[in-house]
């Protein structure tokens, strides 16, 4: 699918299978999400540009690679996005963070926005938007709308599971934003849940159901 990368790394797929199991506890689910997020972060950043910097090792002066230009913003779609955020910050501790509070109304499946915070210089940074679930796409489309309104120009969207319907809607709304996911599942059910999916990611992370 154009503009969509499926991350097939065996460790990602193995951990995802455990997360899907309904017997997996809240604690295990949270730990696996954190572990998987570092692997997903590795893939979503694998083509970042490098530039050479002069440094001194204890033995000699060398040219050595560092990330080029202004760095990253990780934009977490609350609540469940925070499950991916923590592991990504383990890998890139200097990244700036944006929080986008959006939940979807259970009846209408429309996004309800309740919070927004982003760094001032977001226009100069690569923004990686994170949320474990891309279902209808309504929440992620709204979050990216908001980030673009604030000036973001260079964005990627990273999730764990995506429904084909959500990918189509998201790509139609934001064709300039590539999508990275560990799986494209079968379909959405009548309540807008991803099938086979893993249930409600936020509830499974925080034990709220
Ligand atoms: O693509 P969509 O149809 O919009 O659905 C996906 C959204 O639903 C979930 O959040 P939820 O609304 O459950 O909020 P939460 O993270 O606070 O649990 C999920 O984390 C996404 O943000
Ligand atoms: O399957 C789904 C759909 C939306 N949000 C979730 O957390 N899970
Ligand atoms: Mg959410």
Task: Describe what is shown at a glance.
This protein has helices at residues 10-20, 26-44, 81-91, 138-149, 164-173, 201-206; strands at residues 4-6, 50-56, 61-67, 72-78, 96-104, 111-117, 126-130, 133-134, 154-158, 161-162, 179-181, 183-184, 187-188, 194-195. With 209 residues, the chain is of the alpha/beta class.
What labels would you give this structure?
single chain, 209 residues, alpha/beta, Rossmann fold, seven-stranded mixed β-sheet, three-stranded parallel β-sheet, 6 helices, 14 strands, 33% helix, globular, binds 1-O-pyrophosphono-5-O-phosphono-alpha-D-ribofuranose, binds uracil, binds magnesium ion
Helix segment count?
6
Strand order of the largest sheet: 1-11-9-7-4-5-6
End-to-end separation in angstroms reads 35 Å
- The proportion of strand residues reads 25-35%
| Largest sheet properties | 7 strands, mixed
Number of strands: 14
Radius of gyration: 18 Å
The structure class reads alpha/beta
Bound compounds: 1-O-pyrophosphono-5-O-phosphono-alpha-D-ribofuranose, uracil, magnesium ion
CATH top level is: Alpha Beta
Oligomer: single chain
Q: Give the overall pLDDT as a whole number.
A: 96
CATH architecture: 3-Layer(aba) Sandwich
- Estimate the helix proportion, in percent: 25-40%
Reported by name, the CATH topology is Rossmann fold
């Amino acid at each position: 699918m154009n503009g969509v990368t499926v991350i097939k790394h065996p460790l990602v797929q193995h951990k995802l299978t455990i997360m899907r199991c309904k017997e997996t506890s809240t604690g295990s689910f949270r730990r696996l999400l954190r572990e998987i997020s570092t692997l997903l972060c590795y893939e979503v950043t694998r083509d970042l540009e490098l530039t050479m910097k002069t440094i001194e090792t204890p033995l000699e002066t060398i040219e050595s690679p560092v990330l080029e230009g202004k760095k990253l913003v990780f934009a977490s779609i609350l609540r469940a996005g925070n499950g991916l955020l923590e592991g990504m910050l383990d890998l890139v501790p200097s990244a700036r963070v944006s929080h986008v509070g959006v939940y979807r109304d259970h009846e209408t499946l429309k996004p309800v926005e309740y919070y927004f915070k982003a760094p001032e210089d977001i226009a100069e940074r690569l923004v990686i938007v994170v949320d474990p679930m891309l279902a209808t796409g309504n929440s992620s489309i709204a979050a990216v709308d908001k980030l673009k309104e604030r000036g973001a120009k260079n964005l990627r969207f990273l999730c764990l599971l995506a429904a084909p319907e959500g990918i189509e809607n998201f790509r139609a709304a934001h064709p300039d934003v590539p999508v990275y996911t560990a799986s494209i599942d079968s379909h959405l059910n009548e309540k807008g849940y991803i099938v086979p999916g893993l249930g409600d990611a936020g509830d499974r992370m925080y034990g709220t159901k």
